Structures
1.
Amino acid sequence: MLESYLTLKPEFEIVMMEPQDCHEVSVLHAERFPRAWNDGEFHSLLSQEPVFGFVARQTNAFLRKPLPGFVLARHAAGEGEILTIAVQPKLARTGLGWRLMQAALREAQARGGETMFLEVDGGNAPALGLYRKLGFEKVGERKAYYADDKGAKSTALVMRRVLR
Ligand SMILES: CC(C)(COP(=O)(O)OP(=O)(O)OC[C@H]1O[C@@H](n2cnc3c(N)ncnc32)[C@H](O)[C@@H]1OP(=O)(O)O)[C@@H](O)C(=O)NCCC(=O)NCCS
């Protein structure tokens, strides 16, 4: 019995982010980004009416696992924006980023959105791969926009996708 639980292929559902998720979201954010957003920052963003998010949850976990992934987005006046997205490194390339993004795109469209924007470091190959696969195209760039902890600068790409 235990053995069959342990060998179970993980299954995930994508559900709306709730205020009680903010702590786990901030923990994963801190793991994946050099400038972490804390629990309070996520709470404050999520309490704004135009902001919404989704989290991935494993539906067949035997023990409670760290949050698999999340996305946070905003929609106002026909335009959506992806604020941040992250997936557990252990679950990379299993399709969670894609599913989270699809949920955010659908929600923005349901709220009347016509386009979705995002900003990404031009050197972030996994994120660029994901966004291009979803149909995002580069519409601008900000040179030397990001700086890492050693001061090295990189370009931010602004990308857009029409929501239909
Ligand atoms: C970007 C990120 C969310 C992608 O999540 P993911 O769950 O691994 O992505 P998916 O498994 O859904 O991949 C979907 C597609 O994205 C692209 N992709 C994902 N990882 C990639 C990689 N390492 N290199 C190139 N393309 C990649 C591929 O096109 C992939 O489709 P395929 O597997 O059929 O080829 C994840 O790498 C992450 O959390 N990164 C750290 C945080 C971050 O950089 N967030 C974005 C800030 S703008």
Note: The beta strands are 12-16, 51-58, 69-76, 79-87, 115-121, 137-147, 153-162.
2.
Amino acid sequence: MLLVHGGEAAADAPVLRTGGVPLVPHGFTWPLCRECGGAMQFLAHLPLDIGAVAVFMCQNDPGMCDEWDAFSGGNRALLFTAPLSPAVVPAEGETLLGAVTALSPHAGEPSEELVLGRLGGEPEWWQNDETPACPSCTTPMTFTAQLEEGRDHRTAINFGGGGRGYAFHCGPCGEAAFLWQR
Ligand SMILES: [Zn+2]
Ligand SMILES: [Zn+2]
């Protein structure tokens, strides 16, 4: 299902969105970049039947933390299945996007410039198929969603300028992963 701009959303809205604050379970700790140690930027809340995937990526030193790679530690995707509430945002670091944007499913063929992502189905790879293997059970992970950067550079996600992000999960293992290509 293609996703298009669904208007602004509240920062803690339990809807499919980019930006705002993550909705997290009790005991959550905000992900830190393995490369630079800084608090990551929250990119997207992706509700699923089994819970929600939260996507984070380091933006404290853009381009220097291997933030495109699924397992280098410059980004983090988390699958939550417990009850969720808004996270406490760290005081330091590039932690939040400049806008909260709801993403709405769109049936049919919207014009390309309106498309902000895709939910489920098959990923549209920009480069080669890089479907990650689950770190727990090693089977190929389930495609969750893909995200475009957004057109306003002041509020867009940084996928290197025109790139595309891909989120995956493994429900049985409670794992999630994220990468981007351009
Ligand atoms: Zn970093
Ligand atoms: Zn697994």
Note: Residues 150 and 156 are 5 Å apart (CA to CA).
